[in-house]
Design a protein that fits this description.
The protein is about 30% helix and about 20% strand. The chain is an alpha/beta fold. The longest helix is centred in the C-terminal third of the chain and has 20 residues. Its cofactor is Mg(2+).
Length: about 350
């Protein structure tokens, strides 16, 4: 089955001028990043259909001829980049006519609704206006409103291509207790600067290592009873992050599953892990200092244990060295590098003879 991306034209594929009519060659401007995004989606197996409202097209105020020439040039440019459209569906009615063929109506979609070769679960709509999102809702498919100055929106073309072509493994976990409020946002298929705030700056710095060296996008916002001590904040952050890992990995198809020995000056840390679904944690190391920054060293293995319990992760973590700062940081970096290997997609097979992880 084939997924289809239904795409609005003006303001989505090409920029829309102030008079809302692209009736001359010099008005033709492509929306930023649209061509590389469509190439990525094409290579991922998507087909494209343009669905556009063109108010009064063919009337005296908007003759067909002045529409056809810029439109043909647009299509030629796309074709030169290997981008073809399965169909171009244009409604030429006026808004006051309220015809079912005009978006957000789906009157133009009759033939597509009867096509059983279309993967409707993956199909989507991209447009710059609310009517495009309502059109998507009427089709019961996902809608992306492109970010514009005039109509708002939350998406750009690279983000849309990532969301659809990469099928990113994401999770959002909100963990609220009487002692803490933790929110974790995770994307295993995107790299971004970590955004961490737990109220413990050194712990934030350690968690940043997981995002940076794990090659994943991590956002963590934590509020806890730090006026008592750090225990609950660190423990619950580990549990929430572990739960997010479990949810983002889903059925774990295609992952490397196993993961890293990392040197840091005089320190050597090793993180051997397995996303087996059976939580187990072994820690081999010791710290001389009671704290490194604002992080109690006794809570370092406790954090990793909490992470393993919630993620269904088997982790054997070893660290040797003289400097406790280096040792703590090496533990987090070694875990992150092992995660990078373990969660990386290497195919579609489930890496288990049991048939489940």
């Amino acid at each position: 089955m084939t997924p289809i991306l239904f795409i609005d034209r003006d303001g989505t594929l090409i920029e829309e001028p102030a008079d809302h009519q692209i009736d001359a060659y010099e008005k033709l401007r492509f929306v930023r990043d649209v061509i590389p995004a469509l190439i990525k989606l094409r290579d991922a197996g998507w087909q494209f259909v343009i669905v556009s409202n063109q108010d009064g097209l063919g009337s005296e105020s908007y003759p067909q001829a002045i529409f056809d020439a810029p439109h043909a040039l647009m299509m030629h440019v796309f074709e030169s980049q290997g981008i073809t459209f399965r169909d171009v569906l244009i409604d030429t009615s006026w808004p006051h006519e309220n015809l079912p063929t005009r978006k957000p109506g789906i009157g133009l979609m009759t033939a597509y609704l009867q096509d059983r070769s279309i993967d409707w679960a993956r199909s989507a709509m991209v447009g710059d206006r609310l009517t495009d999102i309502q059109f998507a809702q009427n089709l019961n498919i996902r809608g992306f409103q492109l970010r514009t100055e005039e109509f708002g929106g939350d998406w750009d073309w690279p983000a849309i291509a990532h969301a659809l072509a990469d099928a990113p493994r994401t999770a959002v976990v909100q963990r609220n207790t009487k002692e803490t409020r933790i929110r974790v946002e995770l994307d295993l298929d995107a790299q971004a600067e970590p955004r961490i705030h737990t109220g413990l700056p050194f712990f934030d710095h350690m968690l940043e290592q997981i995002g940076k060296h794990g090659g994943i996008s991590v956002r963590i916002q934590a509020e806890g009873d730090l006026h008592i001590d750090e225990h609950h904040t660190i423990e619950d952050t580990g549990l929430a992050l572990g739960q997010a890992l479990r949810e983002a990995l889903g059925d774990k198809r295609g992952i490397g599953r196993y993961g890293f020995t990392l040197p840091m000056d005089e320190t050597l840390a090793s993180a051997a892990l397995d996303f087996s679904g059976r939580p187990y944690f072994v820690f081999d190391g010791e710290f001389k200092r009671e704290r490194v920054g604002d992080l109690p060293t006794e809570l370092v293995p406790h954090f990793f244990r909490s992470l393993c319990e919630a993620a269904g992760l088997n982790l054997n973590l070893q660290v040797r060295g003289d400097n406790d700062h280096h040792k703590v940081e090496a533990c987090f970096k070694a875990l992150a590098r092992a995660l990078r290997t373990a969660v990386a997609r290497q195919g579609t097979e489930l890496p288990s003879t049991k048939g489940a992880l």
